[in-house]
Design brief:
Length: 105
């Protein structure tokens, strides 16, 4: 079975979690492009649109960020169980890492 780029990305991220390479940067990396665009749009609206529109957009950004906190906490609580259930030999085989030493897995 050939993996799609998206499947490869997810399996690689799970493997990074298993190997303990999870950092705050690891969790925020997928969000940074969207966050940068939103901050730029809010900055643009602060100069070009009425203050009410800017306040509304800022409120939406803060609300979205606050909504993400419980989702991230829930995922962090579930992740150890998920990592125990995954067949890592198959994951390494699919990613082409069957030759990796066991210590590196």
């Amino acid at each position: 079975m050939e993996l799609t780029p998206l499947q490869r990305k997810f399996l690689t991220r799970y493997r990074d979690l298993r190997e303990g390479r999870e950092t705050l940067r690891f969790r925020l990396k997928p969000l940074l492009p969207r966050l940068a665009i939103l901050v730029a749009l809010i900055g643009y609206s602060a100069f070009m649109l009425p203050a009410v529109v800017t306040a509304f957009a800022t409120g939406m950004l803060v609300g979205a960020a606050l909504r993400q906190v419980p989702l991230t906490r829930g995922a962090k609580q579930i992740m150890p169980v998920l990592l125990d259930v995954i067949d890592w030999d198959k994951v390494d085989e699919r990613l082409g890492d069957a030759g990796r030493p066991v210590e590196a897995r």
